[in-house]
Amino acid sequence: GAELMKELLFPTLAFLLCALAPMTAAQPQTPEGRPAPKVLEGPQKDGFIRGVFESQFNSGQRAAFGKKPDVKALVSAMTPEQRVAARSRLAEAEAMAESAEALKEIARGYLLLDEAQPESGQDAVRVAARLQEIEPDKADGFTLSASGHYQMGDYPAAVAASKEALKRDPNDAIAQTVLSLSDGRRASNSVVREASNSADNP
């Protein structure tokens, strides 16, 4: 009946409405008229991602999360099958996306899913590459790329992307953090390799 129709239509409508909003929204500006990018943080930027993630749950499950659930909580509650379906929804949005704002949100969605599947970080890196083409003078695409490479464990690539981001925005806190962490991991890996080589060649 009507309840069944709601269950069938809600995920599709929620996805379409949330996917269209960031594609048409203007980029936020600072009081001085400069773009305000902090693309990986800020609850005001979670609407699109939340809509995609919430669409993986039925109405009863959604009610248990409350009116405005944390996107990380949604991902943590997903089954492997739901994560695959959420990734598929992001891929559909990626195929239609043309604006920088849409690409930022899609990449962020991939990164949130990839926290549980680090080997899949190439999705965010791919979207970040498109963003770099659209906005080559802005840090966002390089910061997202750095985050994706870091989650995959490709620390040299994360360092390189972080440095590119910081050339464009020296105050990018996310790029600074990824650079610091990646440099540390890269140094640790180098020490381990040297120790391993010494053990193999006494």
Order of helices and strands: HHHHHHHHHH
**Structural class by SSE content:** mainly alpha
Which spans of ≥5 residues are poorly predicted at pLDDT below 50?
2-44, 190-200
Distance between the termini: 76 Å
Number of helices: 10
Number of strands: 0
What is the global morphology? globular
- Beta-strand level of the residues, as a percent range? under 5%
Largest sheet: none
What Rg, in angstroms, do the CA atoms define? Answer: 19 Å
Mean of residue pLDDT values: 75
Q: Percent of residues in helical segments?
A: over 70%
Brief synopsis:
The chain is an all-alpha fold. The protein has helices at 2-24, 47-54, 59-65, 71-77, 80-96, 100-114, 122-134, 140-152, 155-168, 173-200.
How does this model look, in words?
- The protein is mainly α.
- The protein has ten helices and no strands.
- It has helices spanning 2-24, 47-54, 59-65, 71-77, 80-96, 100-114, 122-134, 140-152, 155-168, 173-200.
- The protein is globular, with a radius of gyration of 19 Å.
- 37% of the residues are buried.
Map the helices and strands:
Blueprint: H1 2-24, H2 47-54, H3 59-65, H4 71-77, H5 80-96, H6 100-114, H7 122-134, H8 140-152, H9 155-168, H10 173-200
Helix pairs in contact: 1-2, 1-6, 5-6, 6-7, 6-8, 7-8, 8-9, 8-10, 9-10
Features:
202 residues; mainly alpha; disordered C terminus
